User: What shape does this take?
Amino acid sequence: MMSLHSSAIKASLHHSFPSSLRSTLSVSFSAGSLIRLPAAGNRVLSVVATSGRDSPMSPNNDSRGSSSKVATESFFRSVLGQMETVYLNRNPTPKSVLELVRSVDDEQLCYDHLAFRTFGIGGYGIDSLASFFLDYGYTPMDELKFPAKKLRALWFAPPDVSAIPGGSGVNGPLPRVFISELLVDQMSSQTQDVIRKYTEASHNGKKYAALSSALGTLTWEKPLSSEFEQLARESEYAAWTLVNGYALNHVTISVHRLKSHLNKIKKLNQFLEEKGFKLNSEGGVLKVSPDGGLQQSSTVADSISFKFSDGVTKSIPCSYIEFAERLVLPQYQNVPESEIRESHRRDGFEVGNADKIFESTFQEQLSRRTG
Assistant: This one.
């Protein structure tokens, strides 16, 4: 599989990104190693990753010099920043929430994770986006399965890179990354035909997943409105991905890292609801892991006007913002609060929580915005 440090992709990045980012494109990358991860059925997920020593953002990689590391990290954060900009420009609710939280808690606001959706077919699934993050030192962690929704996901841990002093969001501590994919081969033949029609016509669009997300464009043509409706009847996740592609599905505020009274998720939820924000109520507003250590909530997704290829314009679901509080693990309960670090807290994700948060873009939840 071709990784994002190929010369062809570098050229595409140089011509496609805004001029403010082009100066960083001269950074060179070491060749990656192939990681093969288990996937559904007989399919194998292959992703190209640099080793910890060779990753351009690895703190142990001294051969390139500190200036190269700074430039490489700057480029990586700039790409994340472009993804975030597209996300905030399209979705007024996340933008308003972030502004509101910052008005109360004006210190560093950190992201717990970024999330993306993909089609698990022909190389357009998890691996299409994972290669970008793996090239920059991320580590593949656990697989999560959602059989009822015909989805699977992998999450990736960030490299140990210091945050930009005073930096928030994508300029703060690097977030985890959560990438899910639709198990297309488990869908009806009609749904499979629609998805194949667009992914196959996209040619090598799968190689430019991160670029697509940063530019806010689909790698395939806009679908017919009837095809969107067809997919929505079987899988609202599939319909969302058809019209949003690799767009950032959500960012997640790390609640416990806030410095104000909002650093408890129940208080943050109450604060947001009092301000008129609709929170995803599927399974209850607060989603709690069985061990109690991971507590999550999310807003209901925004909707945007979308013009389909047949000229029909409809309102479609876009993205939302999530909130996560990770509690201190039992073995660290006696560590003084001032000494608690992220490594002392519950890590990873929980299937039961994520399954309900997926529904933040589903019609049942969207209808509550006007209900």
In short: The first strand starts at residue 33 and ends at 38. The longest helix spans residues 66-90. Residues 51 and 66 are 18 Å apart (CA to CA).
